[in-house]
């Protein structure tokens, strides 16, 4: 979720996070065996890959984790958290071997949801993930609870980590606008935008099972339907064949129909 917050407020929160709330502990290096075990247990996308693809996925998750620190804020980061955040990062870009995120330097992991000022108390805590702006540029904040639930809740279409990393993919061309120009072939850009607005209208009319949050704007629509696409591909293909085909062209080009 992209949120514009006053620079002064963000600066204050950044200082508070840095000086008071970050809880860094020396955590043993993640072993290949533990990585594989967690991926096999929790990540359906990984389980569907062949052995060669699994080895590639493991390598890319490990490379991501070596470059991007995951810091606990009032919580302890465990191996399962690191692996699931890494999986959320790699799933949207797995079909693009040369892709590396250049717009993220750190992931802050909160124990639960938070508000727009990054507060963890009160009743206005309705944010599960956020890509920061201003002093928080290149920082992603995620709810530890919801990252875990996104991969263990096999009956839903939601995945907070995938959602936020799709925002980063979208943002890589300079604009978070629901049109990831780095991935989508030019000839599909207009059909994609047309399909976005058609489906938004169906959602507003109660004639779509896609999360209503997708009607917020084009960027949130992309992130929401990407969760659906990666979490429940067979269901999406059945219920939304045109939308599924377009998302497959964006995220999995060249794969068999």
From TrEMBL:
Listed Pfam families: Peptidase_M90
GO molecular function: aminopeptidase activity; metallopeptidase activity
InterPro entries in the cross-refs: MetalloPept_cat_dom_sf (IPR024079), MtfA_fam (IPR010384), MtfA_N (IPR042252)
A GO term from the CC aspect: cytosol
Cross-referenced PANTHER family: MTFA PEPTIDASE (PTHR30164), PROTEIN MTFA (PTHR30164:SF2)
Protein name: Peptidase
Organism of origin: Paraflavitalea soli
Source organism phylogeny: Bacteria, Pseudomonadati, Bacteroidota, Chitinophagia, Chitinophagales
């Amino acid at each position: 979720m992209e949120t514009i917050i006053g620079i002064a407020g963000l600066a204050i929160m950044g200082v508070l996070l840095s000086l008071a709330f970050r809880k860094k502990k020396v955590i043993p290096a993640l072993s290949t065996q533990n990585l594989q075990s967690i991926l096999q247990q929790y990540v359906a996308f990984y389980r569907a890959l062949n052995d060669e693809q699994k080895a590639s996925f493991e390598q890319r998750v490990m490379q991501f984790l070596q470059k991007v620190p995951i810091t606990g804020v009032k919580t302890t980061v465990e191996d399962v958290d690191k692996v699931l955040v890494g999986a959320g990062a790699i799933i949207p870009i797995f079909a693009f071997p040369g892709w590396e995120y250049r717009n993220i330097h750190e992931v802050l992991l909160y124990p639960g949801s938070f508000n727009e000022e990054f507060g963890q108390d009160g009743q206005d805590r309705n944010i599960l993930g956020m890509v920061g702006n201003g002093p928080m540029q290149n920082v992603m904040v995620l709810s530890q609870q919801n990252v875990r639930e996104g991969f263990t809740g096999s009956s839903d279409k939601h995945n907070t980590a995938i959602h936020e990393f799709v925002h980063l993919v979208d943002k890589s061309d300079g604009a978070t606008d629901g049109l990831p120009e780095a991935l989508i072939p030019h000839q599909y850009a207009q059909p994609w935008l047309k399909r976005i607005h058609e489906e938004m209208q169906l959602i507003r009319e109660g004639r779509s099972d896609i999360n209503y949050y997708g009607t917020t704007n084009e960027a949130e629509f992309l992130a929401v339907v990407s969760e659906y696409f990666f979490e429940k591909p067979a269901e999406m293909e059945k219920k939304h064949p045109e939308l599924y085909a377009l998302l497959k062209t964006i995220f999995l080009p060249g794969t068999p129909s």
